[in-house]
Amino acid sequence: MKNYEEVLVKILHRNIEQELNRLGLLFRVFSRAKTSLSIDEKIKLKGEGHYSQAGKKIQDLYGIRIALYFPDDLKIAQKAIAKLYTFISQEVDVTNITQFEATRCNFIFKLPQEIVNDSQVLRSNKLVDETFEVQFRTILSEGWHEVEHDLRYKCKSDWNNHNDLSRALNGIFASLETSEWGMMRLFEDLAYRHYKSREWAPMLRNKFRLRTGNELTQALEDIINKDDIGKKLYRLNRVKLILKILNGNINIPININSLVYIANYYFIKDSRISDIMPYPIKRILDELEI
Questions:
Q1: Disulfide-capable partner of 210 in 24, 105, 156, 186 (CB 3.0 to 4.6 Å)?
Q2: Would you list the domain boundaries of the chain?
């Protein structure tokens, strides 16, 4: 029998994917919904009185996990989801500089009322809150978190007297974490090389690290080749541009050309680029400013 809650969590899944795709981020989204049986097991495991109607309730009937390709996109994704849904609370581990281990970055949001109204579990179990959980991870740590959670966190006694192996497992996580930052640095270096070679399309792709995969129009390339437009694009703050798209509710398909038009409209303000901006993009941006 199909778990109807899985149908409802897919609504959250699709909405979150659409919002992150609007920003052009590189990511994967995973989702799941607890069954009535798994909820009953969780209540039993926690013991009588742990959950109550007037106190603490189960907050993760629905769970979303967002895996970002780059660590500097974590905060952008968090801001994006907090803009979509009402934020309730967060559980974020403080990084321990002397120890490598899995770090939680879990946010709780209020469920949209239409999902609350349709949920069979929420109607029948008053120990379940009208909330859902979003876990933010990086793509390289995603699999490691699953292994650590299922085979160490849930089975702590298996690791008693095996501190050397536990430390080795932490070391594997450490190598993944440093690889993520190293990969980000690699793309920054690649963007710089393309900038020095005046190869604007590759420079833009590797600087902004978004789903942009196309080439510049000849008209844009001709303008960027003049004066210091290429330098201004290279020096543009990546996060600032993406947050402008997020907070400005800009819903334009992201590609290299549209990215240049958006960057020019808000930051560079070169009249030559403004003059060749496609009318639909100009109209959308102008209307958002009204």
A1: 24
A2: 4-163, 197-289
